[in-house]
Amino acid sequence: MASHPALKRGIRFRDLVLFYVVVVLSVRWTAMAATAGPSILVVWVAALFCFFIPLAASVMELSSRHPEEGGIYVWTREAFGDFSGFLCAFIYWMSNLPFFAGVLYFGAASALFAFGPQAQALSASPLYYMAFSVFWLAVITALNVLGVDAGKWLNNIGALGSLLPLTVLILLGVASYWRFGPATPVTAASLVPHWSLNNAVFWSSVFFAFSAIEAASAMGDEIQNPRRNVPLALLVGGCILAIGYIGGTAALLFTLPAQAVAGPDGFVNGIALLASRLGFGWMLVPMALLVALNAVGGAAANLSSTARLPFVVGVDRYLPPAFGWIHPRFRTPWIAIASYGAAGMIVVLLGQAGASVRSAYEWLVSMSVISLFLPYLFLFSAMIRLQGRAAGPEVRRVPGGKPVAIGLASMGLASTVITIVLSVIPAGDEANKPLAVAKVLSATAVLVGLGVGMFVVGRVKGRKQRS
């Protein structure tokens, strides 16, 4: 990496653990999973062992081999060269743009529960969702420009929006199960996942829920002692994620009928029903606000980490050099952060600009899984490739050494390929399935082609600047 001004190392171990929680643990996935029946618990366990653990192990070693700013971009570049590194980073940061709108829309819907039935009239107002999303993206961008100390606190507080509601949910679920018995009968047969096309597509979403654990390493030069803190934070954060997802899903699954937690408001509806059943109806307001806070924190963590990729690429001169600038006072990559935040706001506005643009926006959101998982092909392949290179004594290796590392990375690579294939399959109610597949594949090809074009232009300009 080209030399660049020093960034502030303001991310401590506690901040790192809470970052992993807020960036991965989204309460909306528990309600979505609970509608699928008891067999989804087995799918959660499969996703944990076949995707998340290989991903966490790869992130641990790769971030120890190359702990500098840039994360997945640096790892891919070191393994396969500048072109692969740029393409991986480009797809990664583009895939997150529609995520901001999706997660903040979920937060906006959840917040309405805190303000009574009258506020529910806004649930059909595009202006409300647009204003909520743009406002919070502006706040997130401003705080991250002001410095890592300001930005990390929004991440930390946002983590409470998943930890507290899920803890309350699990406790309410245990109390409800003890007093009223199960709402869903559980047998050995019901725990066996039944193969069908629709089920398989749904399972890919469960694997998707465990993604993004690599995001913090994009801020490697802002983490205190990353070689020590990243592995420990991954271990602690991973345990919290597994308990939160599996425990939260089980609490909803065993105590409420599936239709009660269906839809985007399923988690808050589940909390409301359980709290009312047990005489704690007052819990709805604080829980709804915390769930909205979780959505804001998830957007904040993704924006703060992913914005570091265009910064490092700008330092390497494959984007305009301004992306590599450090603010002299705040010591943050302010151009990269501000540009990425502005791009997120534009995507939100395009989502409500009109019928045709709305269709294009939904099309972009529908391919978010495939566009996010493509960089994991680079990540797991880099893990395998770098096993052939020597590692110094300061590098934290995967327990078991090279054979275990290659085995875990290969398992993660296979899970990634399967998830990508399943994400291409259209939903069962899609009228024209061949056209839907063609649209997703063509959109992916356009995205990759755009990345290739930008790399070529950046390389030509970079050579001119250096000369």
Keywords:
467 residues; mainly alpha; Amino acid/polyamine transporter I; 19 helices; 71% helix; globular
Short description:
This protein has 467 residues and is mainly alpha-helical. It has 19 helices and no strands. 71% of the residues lie in helices and 0% in strands.
Describe this structure in words.
With 467 residues, the protein is mainly α. It has a single domain, classed as Amino acid/polyamine transporter I, CATH 1.20.1740. The protein has 19 helices and no strands. Helix 4 packs across helix 17. The relative contact order is 0.19.
CATH topology: Amino acid/polyamine transporter I
Query: What is the name of the CATH class?
Result: Mainly Alpha
The H-and-E topology, N to C, reads as HHHHHHHHHHHHHHHHHHH
- The CATH superfamily is Amino acid/polyamine transporter I
Total of DSSP H or I helical runs spanning 4+ residues: 19
- The residue-averaged pLDDT reads 86
| Structure summary, number of beta strands | 0
- Structural class by SSE content: mainly alpha
CATH architecture: Up-down Bundle
Distance between the termini: 18 Å
How much helical structure, as a percent, in the residues? Answer: over 70%
**Total domain modules:** 1
